[in-house]
Amino acid sequence: MITTLPTSFRSFGLWCLTLSLSANIFLSTPIAYGANEPPEFLAAIEKAKAFLQKSYSEKAIPSDGRTTISALALLKANVPPESAPITGAVGIITAKTSGEEYLANERSKAVYEAGVDLMLLEALDHEGTQYQKQMEMLTKYIVGRQRGDGAWDYTNKDARNGDTSQTQYALLGLWSAHKAGIPFSPSVWDKAALWHIQVQGADGGFSYHPFPGNRSTHSMSVAGACNMLIIRRHLYPEAKGKWGTKPVDKSQDGTPKKFGVLEEAPAEGSAIEEAIVEEAEALSEVEKTERQKAIEAMKDYQPRISLAAIDKSIGGAIAWINRNYAIKKGVGQYPYYYLYSMERMCALGDINQLAGHDWYLEGGSWLVEKQNADKGHWYEGHSLEAAATAFGLMFLTKATARTLGKAPNFGLGGGMLTGNRGLKDPNEPEEEESEKDKLVKKKKEEPVEKLLADLMNPKEANVAAIAEALVENVNFEEREALISQKEILVKMAADPRMNVKQIAMWALGRTEDLEVIPILIDGLLVENVDVNVEALLSLCFMTRRPNGLSDQDVSPDQLIDPTVQGEDRLKAVQKWREETYRRWKRWYFTVRPYNERDDVEETFKIRAAR
Q: What residue spans carry the region label Disordered (predicted)?
């Protein structure tokens, strides 16, 4: 029996951009914001960046929060801080904060504007030194606009019960202020928490303006969950914070069923009753610094709202989102705003799936489908193209994950997951086509099975060119063709040629067959670092663990002192192999398919070496 991943995850594994070998099989420039994203997503990112930059140069973006959010999105997509759209946005913010008080350019939406202004300045100045004066004024303005009940709203009376959306951007701004070291009273978080608890719907969701009878919506429920997650990390900085969903489905013997990496997600229609707090994974360095600042800010303050009440609110909102999970339809007038809020919620809560769905793959696929093919923008309601494109861009680049130091890259130095072929800068001069490039182009016309057969030929002299053609075919044209080639790939994994073995480790990681995981684990013991790294990358890929099982799941070249050479280095590399092998073998024994769990003692022995 073949155990397979859900369809959405299979597609994700097959779509991932994997275009250069660490052993110099391919040479290309890494793309920093996520070499593991599908190539369609990377292309969409480049189009969106080009649109926002062009729109700024043509003065097509209003000089309000839309200019700021566009600049923030570009910054998160690795556009240099000194670029015109970003420096231009900073200039506008500086003008708005040059007087005695903050003056928004769109007065009715001043809270939105102040929030994103703070977000951009902090993203450019984490320590709060270069833009301290501006950030202090913005913080004072946002705190001063908080209502007595703890919410924020427009400057008019349309939101007299508070406004979940305005509150979201006020809290995002204050989160940025906190990270930059701008002081304000923790009571702001307490008051905001109380308002959310008081207006949250009986169904767990949130509405835009919480008048009696207003229904919960997708975008506001995600916003409410985000708000409470932000509040939680400030009022209770030392509390556990990884959020999961608890399925009520049960196995045949009546015991609760564990849905792990190697088991199918709940069948469609299975109720997901609650969200639960799980043990937080290792914090990033950014999060450690942020947490320490929050601990310091709270040392003389006792929260009025309990952690249990906050967790109940978050759990209710996430449960509503799981019950009503949607990407394409029924999410309201602002789907791009919704998707960016979803990315933020999932980054803050360490949520990998919603209702058994790969929210990032499905949301990104929908963005690719909806992106204007000619201009590269998205469009929604009153926000028009600029803001919608900024929201879509920040979803695709996982902007909040980057803010938290949870970079969406694999943490491995090398492997076939580091390229950006197909995304060449059109302004760069054309290079003369090499003989190898010509051969790759020719080989790309051949089917996957023919390429694999060529690689199996021990006399084949063009392994590098065939490998490049194979990778491009699998990623861009014949993504499903690799699945039927398992037997050949298994044979390639046993090939004595290390470059062929390395290709096999990459290819096995892109099949939908979880039975190959033991082969990948065995690949960790092969006496070739490139093969080891590729096997490790594929394990991370297939198990939805981009950072592996520990901080040691990186290339040994990143761990071992470069001054250690000769026999000592060989010993250090071998020690890394054995420890990495044991770690992944232990993990596999806890989650392997039931048909492999025969409880034979020998099965549980973990080899130290081959």
A: 417-443
